[in-house]
Design goal:
Blueprint (H helix, E strand, L loop, with lengths): L2 H8 L13 E5 L11 H7 L3 E7 L1 H11 L9 E5 L2 H5 L4 H15 L5 E6 L1 H5 L4 H12 L4 E6 L9 H10 L13 E5 L4 H14 L4 E4 L14 E5 L5 H9 L3 E2 L7 H15 L4 H26 L3 E4 L6 H12 L2 E7 L8 H6 L6 E5 L1 H11 L3 E4 L1 H9 L4 E3 L2 H4 L8 H19 L1
Parallel strand pairs: 1-12, 2-3, 2-4, 4-5, 6-7, 6-8, 8-9, 10-11, 10-13, 11-12, 13-14
Helix pairs in contact: 8-10, 11-12, 11-13, 12-18
Amino acid sequence: MNAPVASVLVRRPAPSAGCTDAPVLRERGQREVFCGLTGIMWLHRKIQDAFFLVVGSRTCAHLMQSAAGVMIFAEPRFATAIIDDRDLSGLADANDELDRVVERLLARRPEIRLLFLVGSCPSEVIKLDLSRAAGRLSQRHSPQVRVLSYSGSGIETTFTQGEDACLAALVPTLPPEPAGAPASLLVVGALADVVEDQFTRLFGELGIGPVAFLPPRRAADMPRVGPATRYLLAQPFLADTAKALEARGATRLDAPFPLGVEGTTRWLQSAADAFGVKPERFTAATRTASERATQAVTRHRAQLQGKSIFFFPDSQLELPIARFLARELGMRLLEVGTPYLHRAHMAQELALLPEGTALSEGQHVERQLDRCRTLQPDLVVCGLGLANPLESEGLSTKWSIELVFTPIQGYEQAGDLAELFSRPLVRRLRLAA
């Protein structure tokens, strides 16, 4: 038993600690991000009997194919209903065309139980009302298929907000809790199945339950929500989903996000506190996994200790990951940029960041590039559009989108998360040898 470590990990930060009251540089200008359609890439794998129909252009279709890397023989659970010149010119009724596409899709894929109509920049430009179309199609195909809509447009959003919009569309349709229901826990945010299974086992060992996940793996397993629901955010980019859950009476458990040993322990501790788990039971349930994760992370500390890192705003994962890198791996944070800073959801993350960390919200890519080049960090976290140019200038980069596609939450993934950042530095050393 490593009691001193456990006690350090669960200690609450002082309200004035870290960057709680730190100034934030707010920038507005040219942005370099993917659009919200990209979220379909992980969501379509999660809800196994759902289908995502993008209503967009051929450019949208090419983006989806490129982002997914779908091979010819694969049959994914997404497609694009292409808006063409006839739709744009008014020679065809876009709603009639959409109805025909949906009819053909459901005839070909009878296993679909939940169909999302996903708006795009083109569908929003021509004012196609997908919410009304979803209501009409849902009524027509009920009860076999439920049809919902959300926007994946990238006009004013970053790519992870596609998941937020999808889950926020689901929340009003979730079944209510029965009267007098006991307190339940809802974990919110798409997680890899292996991570979900790990958390399920940990909550079971803690005696916390019932526990449900949003999104679930099957459309028929949607969780019940009501005043007895306590929810934990597993992803930091779910502001609209959280607002929708609270409108249904659910209560958010304040916690850092489950990245790294410390973040995972504090996240679990928040649930344990809410459900009255005794400290000795918490320690017994988490000790082995925590110690194993600590050993896995420590293997990468020698490579990352003292190295500097610069975060361009992209995924909204920047603050929790910066906290993990600074506190558990000893990296120096030169600037942590994030597309949007939700102070309530990030309160504990801000408190855990090293005091004096430079924070920025939003993007003016040219100014941020100037600051990055001036600071010459050892590692830059950025989108794909910036990575290759920066690599050509001699900087090591980490693609921020990889942090969304890779399972990184929880104890068992803490070492993998650390390796994502040590790997680019190791690669550069080998190339220089």
